[in-house]
Structures are given as structure tokens and as C-alpha cells.
């Protein structure tokens, strides 16, 4: 069962907790469903927004570097925006799942390697900033580059609202493409 579905069920049960139907509802759930509800509640209410966002970001990066494109795409929706540097061949604002999918596919066609060595992730409940070094290789030229890199992330629940990559040297990036 999806975590949002469990929260929805639990919220309905809480609203009706003084009502016999609600008590009967929770009591009638299978043990596994009760366990999932309790784990979800513990996970979501025990963690700060920043901690939840960090977990989401870790999951996004894990999916990306594992090549699990569909899992990676599940963190984006029609309101998500990626703001790429205008000077890159894929520059500009990419809004919504379709545009983000097209951006990822275009970048995949331009780079044979795109790796990030992270120095850290910093932030608060409003934003997270991942910093490190990016190492990439242009698919058509075979040339590689290494440069500083940061991404500024904003989340709403488990979805990306906005991410802005900041590349240390876009001229170098263009030179290897």
C-alpha cells in the first residue's frame, strides 16, 4: 500500500475515532495494514520536514545512479520544475513530468557519463543544497570534465517542487559536448 494511501486511511480513522465505525474500521484491518499504518505514522511524524526531505533526496539520487529511471520520475509531478543554466544545450525551465522526462532523455543522449562526488547536503525545512564535484563525459566527443557542482532542492511531501543545478563551469561543459 502506498504511504499516502495509508495516511489518508489513518486520517479518516482519526477523524472518526470517537465513532464506533472508526473503531471497527481500524479493528477490521489486516495486521499487515495496521503495521504499515503505524510505521508510516512513526516515520512521518517522528521526522522533521528537513529529515523527510533528506530521505526523499537520498532516494532520488539512489534511483538516478542506479539507473532506475521510472523510480526517479516518480518524485516529479506536473508542478515540478528543473531550472537548468540557459547557456547549456538543454537550458531553461522544464516544468512538469513530460518536460522533465524529455530533459533527462536529452541529457542522457549528450553524456556517456554523469557522476557526482558529494561533499555534503545542507539545508533546513525550506531548502536543501547538495554540493560536490561533477565528472561527466560528452557522448559525441569522448572528452571528460570535472567541475564544482551544487543543486538547490525544494520539496512538498515526497515530490520535488523545484531544483536548480549550479555548475561551476558551463563553458567547460559545452566544450565536451
Walk me through what this model shows:
With 177 residues, this protein is an alpha+beta fold. It folds into two domains: 3-46; 49-176, Nuclear Transport Factor 2, Chain: A, CATH 3.10.450.50. Helices cover 47% and strands 31% of the residues. It is built from seven helices and six strands. The chain has helices spanning 3-15, 20-28, 31-46, 49-66, 69-73, 96-110, 170-176; strands at residues 81-84, 92-95, 111-123, 128-138, 144-156, 159-167. A six-stranded mixed sheet has the order 2-1-6-5-4-3. A hairpin with a 4-residue loop joins strand 3 and strand 4. The longest helix has 18 residues, at 49-66. It starts with a helix and ends with a helix.
Features:
2 domains, 177 residues, Nuclear Transport Factor 2, Chain: A, alpha+beta, 47% helix, 6 strands, 7 helices, 6-stranded mixed β-sheet
Quick summary of this structure?
With 177 residues, the chain is an alpha+beta fold. The protein is built from 7 helices and 6 strands; from the N terminus they run αααααββαββββα.
Amino acid at each position: 500500500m502506498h504511504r499516502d494511501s495509508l495516511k489518508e486511511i489513518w486520517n479518516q480513522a482519526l477523524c472518526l475515532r470517537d465513532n464506533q465505525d472508526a473503531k471497527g474500521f481500524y479493528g477490521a484491518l489486516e495486521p499487515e495494514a495496521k503495521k504499515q499504518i503505524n510505521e508510516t505514522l512513526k516515520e512521518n511524524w517522528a521526522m522533521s520536514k528537513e529529515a523527510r526531505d533528506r530521505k526523499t533526496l537520498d532516494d532520488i539520487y539512489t534511483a538516478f545512479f542506479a539507473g532506475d529511471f521510472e523510480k526517479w520520475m516518480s518524485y516529479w509531478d506536473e508542478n515540478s520544475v528543473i531550472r537548468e543554466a540557459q547557456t547549456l544545450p538543454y537550458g531553461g525551465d522544464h516544468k512538469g513530468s513530460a518536460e522533465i522526462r524529455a530533459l533527462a532523455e536529452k541529457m542522457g543522449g549528450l553524456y556517456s557519463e554523469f557522476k557526482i562526488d558529494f561533499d555534503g547536503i545542507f539545508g533546513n525545512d525550506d531548502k536543501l543544497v547538495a554540493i560536490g564535484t561533477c565528472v561527466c563525459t560528452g557522448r559525441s566527443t569522448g572528452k571528460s570534465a570535472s567541475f564544482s557542482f551544487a543543486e538547490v532542492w525544494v520539496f512538498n511531501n515526497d515530490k520535488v517542487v523545484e531544483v536548480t543545478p549550479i555548475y561551476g563551469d558551463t563553458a567547460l561543459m559545452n566544450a565536451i559536448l
